[in-house]
Amino acid sequence: MDAFFKLHSDLPREGPGEPADIAWATALAGIKPAAQMADVACGPGADIGPLLTAAPQGHVTALDKTAQFVDAARKDWHGDGQVTVLKADMAAIMNSYDLIWCAGAVYFLGVTQALSAWRKSLKPDGVIAFSEACWFTDTPSDQAKALWDKEYPAMTDEAGITAQIAAAGYEVLGTRRLGDAAWEAYFTPLEARVQMLRPTADAALRAVLDETEAEIACWRAHRAEFGYVLSVVRPL
């Protein structure tokens, strides 16, 4: 874990995403200018600014259970009256929100489990927007299958995500596949950090760097086979 956090120190984000995704989701959800929003598993806080762009008079409660990411988000948003950054578990969201946003982290709980747990924290007409890794093909390459069998063996396809949403008692307002720009927003600075750290890396860090480069190479070679789907959902 020390090697992982050394690699991931000072990165702008911890997974694929871009402001256009948030703009699309908040427009579809009809988010009001003064919306109360939660950024769940916020990482270093890359999505806080775009959320506030969508709701300029709103408030974001950003939470993550990893102290390093909480510190990074607080550094960028310290003293901002529209943002509260908490060290907290995504499984136990407090308060009530017009929008719960979760970029790429629902898999820690499972789609159905997360949506079921968060229902109590939605205001009337509140929505949840989350991105989830999934297969885009029934016949993935050996390289892609090996990567995701290790990273997320329970990963399903888009129909499987829809079924998990329905099992939690939600309807889908819309879905959107994350584009290449969202992936490069994560991988480009990550790749640069790998290259910076490699010359002085010890054995443990080299192993993490090798795994990271393999992940990046796999996506660039097989991006048509897998990706993230952003879903905007509402309780029935």
Description:
With 236 residues, the chain is α/β, with parallel strands linked by helices. Helices cover 43% and strands 23% of the residues. Helix 4 links the parallel strand 2 and strand 3. Helix 1 crosses helix 9. The relative contact order is 0.18. The model has no long low-confidence stretch (mean pLDDT 96).
Termini separation: 40 Å
CATH homologous superfamily identity of the domain at 13-135 and 153-181 and 226-235: Vaccinia Virus protein VP39
**Beta-strand percent range:** 15-25%
**CATH level-1 class of the domain at 13-135 and 153-181 and 226-235:** Alpha Beta
User: What pattern of helices and strands is seen along the backbone?
Assistant: HHEHEHEEHEHHEHHE
Shape: globular
Low-confidence stretches are none
Structural class: alpha/beta
Protein name: Class I SAM-dependent methyltransferase
GO biological process, one term: methylation
Organism: Sulfitobacter geojensis
Pfam family, one: Methyltransf_25
List descriptors.
single chain, 236 residues, alpha/beta, Rossmann fold, seven-stranded mixed beta sheet, 23% strand
